[in-house]
Automatic annotation (TrEMBL):
It comes from Brassica rapa subsp. trilocularis. This is Rhamnogalacturonase A/B/Epimerase-like pectate lyase domain-containing protein. Residues 1-21 form the signal peptide. InterPro entries: GH28_Enzymes, Glyco_hydro_28, PbH1, Pectin_lyas_fold, Pectin_lyase_fold/virulence, RHGA/B-epi-like_pectate_lyase. It comes from the Eukaryota. The gene is A03p042330.1_BraROA. SUPFAM superfamilies: Pectin lyase-like.
């Protein structure tokens, strides 16, 4: 079934060219992709797919992608998914490809465990096996996953049951996982009921995620929204995420495996997001951060009905660092703890971790927070041998119902913060003030900040 030529040119995109401005994390979302029409397009119907929600279409998707590989050096191609419910197991994408889900199209993940292959663990996370994700890509260039608000439904309930009962032999699959890939755009889509993570770019560069809606039931166990993992130049913006655990979690490897792989998550821009996680955090850093996390700008967040607003997590044996983080313009509502920085959180990959590998958390600025219905304003518990330093708070006003702040092994400074923070966060003004002003997060203000 061929699509009309005009529709092909309207819906298909090619050559995801990142038009870059200044190269720092605060401008990443201001950069944009130039989307030219893909010169070739096919419908999944041409490969025998049936959109009744019952027929298994794994082979149809695999055959379609195999066919479209032949257009990679001819400007790329689009795979068009029309309205319907398209049941499938996992399949791989290819370079210079657009996967387009029409309005009313739902790609349904098969709930049958036998339809999911197993693959080796990621090298920054250790040995063993895991289930392959629904949509996969490895060493790809120029991939667009988009639509007219089409849907990926991971049908995760059965995976959640297996996970909670302890009957799974391997880690749960994700909906989308792209590995060692570059120039990725994911937009205008809905993600429902992921077995584990919804979108997982790992070892990737230039990833732009925008205008996505991600939802699972709030009791889904350890289901995450977007996890940028050992990736750089990442933008996530204009999206709404409600999941059972952290909505956006920045990671970079686990213990000695992440230390040895040594690929940080860096140059990340998160903006204009609405987030909800009753058992997790709106934004989290770690606890798997052994490759390092740095140069992150977060702005314009609404976090509601969540366990934690912003969380920094690590533990002895992680190594790595969390540094040069700016978070501003955050509205919190009905959040148990607004800010958590915990140096004693997270399990270990195995017993071979180096207990002397101490993480470093430093140069973190949080400013312009407001909150109502907050339980605890903040809990900062660093590591005795590696305290958290240069934690800088400015223009933060929270309405709390209990003890305001808990602090140990942390130092920094605060300006215009209520309730009044603990003494440890009033102890080191030189770490936050240079030239008479506190760093405000914009380019012009960088000269004021000590780093």
């Amino acid at each position: 079934m061929k699509m009309p030529v005009a529709l092909v040119w309207l819906l298909a995109f090619t050559n995801v060219l990142l038009i870059r401005g200044e190269s720092n994390d605060a401008t990443i979302c201001k950069d944009h992709f130039m989307l030219d029409p893909r010169p070739h397009s096919v419908s999944i119907l041409e490969f025998g797919a049936v959109g009744d929600g019952k027929y298994l279409n794994t082979l149809a998707f695999q055959n379609a992608i195999f066919y479209l590989k032949s257009f990679a050096d001819k400007g790329g191609a689009q795979l068009y998914v029309p309205p319907g419910k398209w049941l499938t197991g996992s399949f791989n994408l290819t370079s210079h490809l657009t996967l387009f889900l029409e309005k009313g199209a739902t790609i349904l993940a098969s709930p049958d465990q036998s339809h999911w292959d197993t693959v080796s663990s990621l090298p920054s996370y250790g040995r063993g096996k895991r289930y392959r994700s629904l949509i996969n890509g490895d060493n790809l260039l120029d991939v667009v996953i988009t639509g007219d608000n089409g849907t990926f439904d991971g049908q995760g309930a059965v995976w959640w049951e297996w996970f909670e009962s302890g009957t799974l032999n391997y880690s749960r699959p994700h909906i989308i996982e792209l590995v060692s890939s570059k120039n990725i755009l994911i937009s205008n889509l809905t993600f429902l009921n992921a077995p584990s993570v919804n979108i997982h770019p790992v070892y990737c560069s230039h990833v732009h995620i925008r205008k996505v809606l991600i939802e699972t039931t709030v009791d889904s166990p350890y289901v995450l929204g977007v996890v940028p993992d050992s990736s750089d130049n990442v933008c996530i913006q204009d999206s709404t995420i409600t999941v059972g655990h952290d909505t956006i979690s920045l990671k970079s490897g686990w213990d000695q495996y992440g230390i040895n792989y040594n690929r940080p998550t860096t140059n990340v821009h998160l903006r204009n997001l609405s987030l909800k996680s009753p058992t997790g955090a709106g934004i989290s850093f770690g606890s798997e951060m052994s490759g390092g996390i740095s140069d992150v700008t977060v702005e314009l967040l609404t976090i509601q009905s969540s366990h934690v607003g912003v969380a920094f997590r690590t533990t002895r044996g992680r190594g790595g660092y969390i540094r040069n983080i700016t978070i501003s313009g955050v509205i919190l509502s009905r959040v148990d703890t607004a800010i958590v920085a915990d140096g004693h959180t997270g399990s270990h990959a195995d017993d071979k971790y180096d207990r002397d590998a101490l993480p470093v958390v430093t140069r973190v600025l949080m400013r312009n927070f407001t909150g109502e219905g907050i339980g605890l304003a903040g809990k900062f518990t660093g590591i005795g041998e590696s305290p958290f330093t240069s934690i800088c708070l400015s223009d933060i006003h929270l309405q709390t119902s209990s003890e305001s702040w808990v602090c140990s092994n942390v130092s920094g400074f605060s300006d215009d913060v209520s309730p009044e923070p603990c003494q440890e966060l009033m102890s080191s003004p030189s770490s936050c003030f240079v030239g008479g002003g506190i760093y405000g997060g914009d380019t012009a203000a960088r000269g004021y900040y000590s780093w």
